Amino acid sequence: MFFACLAVILHSYITIDMEKHTKIKTILVAIDFTQKTDSATILAVHMAKRHNARIILFHNVMNFYIIDRTGRQVVGEDTVTKQYADAEHSLELIKNSLQQNYNDITFLKKIGTDTITNSINKIVEEESVDIVITGTSGKQGLRELILGSSSYQILKGVSCSVLLMPEGSKQFKFEKILVPVRVLEKLKEKMEISKLIAEKNKGLISLFGISGDENFTSIRKAFINIRESLKGSDTEDYTSFTVSNDKAVEISKASKDAEFDLIILNYQDEESWKSFFSENFFKQIINNTSVPLLFFKDNDNPAQDPEPAGYDITLPFPG
Fold first, then answer.
1. UspA domain spans which residues (predicted)?
2. So what's the pLDDT on residue 300?
C-alpha cells in the first residue's frame, strides 16, 4: 500500500514538473511602433489563442546619460518624459484595438525605462513570462555588428525563451517544424516545448541531427534516442543526420529546401567569435533564414545585459 501511494505521488510530481516545462501561459511581445513588430504582435495573438495564454504588450523608453564626477545624470529628462507619455498612449491604443478584436485574450501593457534587457527581465520575473516575441529585420549592418540590434540584444540578454519573427512574415501557424539536434544542453526540455507547439498547431516535427567533429558520438546517440521516442507519434515527420562544421548554414539550407514554418533551437552557441567581423551561430542563423526562430531557454538561464545603460561622454569616441 505504501509503495502504491508513493508511486502515485511520484507520478503526480513528474506530471507537475513536466507541465512546468510544457506550458505557455504568458507571452511578452516587444513593440517599437514600427512595421517590424506588426507581424510579431499578430503572431503573439495567434499563439495566445492556441495556448490559452495572456499577452503583455511591452515598449522600452531608453534614458540617455551623462556620467561625470557628480554621478549619473539624465540627459533631456523632459524629452524622456514626453516619450514615455507618447509610448503609454500608443500602447493603450494598440491594447484597446486588440482587446476589441480578441476579447477572449487578456492583454496587459508595460513600459520599461532601463536597458531593454533589464526591463524585460524584470517583467519576466514579476509576471512569469514564458516566451518573448520580437520582430527582426534579419539585416546586420556595421552598427548592429558592433552594438547589437534590439532583437539580438533581446535574444542574448533575456532570461526566457525568445521567438524572432522576421519582418513582413505571415507565418502565424506552425505546421512544419524543424528541430535541429546540434548541442546536448537542455535537449530534453527543448523537445518538450517542440512537442507542445506541434500539438497546439496540429503540426509535424522534422528532426535534423547535425554534428561537427566534436561530440559526434554523443550527439548522434541523442539524435537516435529522440528519433525513437517520436516514432509512431502524431508529431513525427521525418529525420535526417548530417556532419558539418557550418551548422547554421546547413540548418538554414534545410529549412529553405523543405519550406518549414518554424525552427526550434537550443539557446547555446558553441562557436566563439573568430574575429571582430565574424558571425557567431546566432547571427548566422538569423541572417540566413526567413522563417520564425524559437530559441529555447530554460527559466534557470542566468540573465545577461549585453548592452550599455546609456551613452557615457567621459569615454573617448572612436574616430
1. 24-165
2. 63
C-alpha span between 202 and 185 (Å, rounded): 27
What is the C-alpha separation between 232 and 228, in angstroms, rounded? 9
Grid cell of 15 as nine digits: 506530471
Confidence (pLDDT) at 7: 41
Residue 273, classed as helix, strand or coil, is: coil
CATH of the domain spanning 173-298, picked from 3.40.50.620, 3.30.1330.60, 3.30.1330.10, 3.40.190.10 = 3.40.50.620
Residue 45 grid coordinates = 495573438
8 Å CB contact between 33 and 59? yes
| Per-residue pLDDT tens digits for 45-73 | 999 999 999 999 999 987 666 666 666 66
| Superfamily of the domain at 13-171 | HUPs (3.40.50.620)
Q: Answer whether 223's CB lies under 8 Å from 181's CB.
A: yes
The cell for 145 is: 555588428
3-class secondary structure, 250? helix
Domain boundaries, the chain: 13-171, 173-298
Query: Which helix (H) or strand (E) covers residue 24, if one does?
Result: none
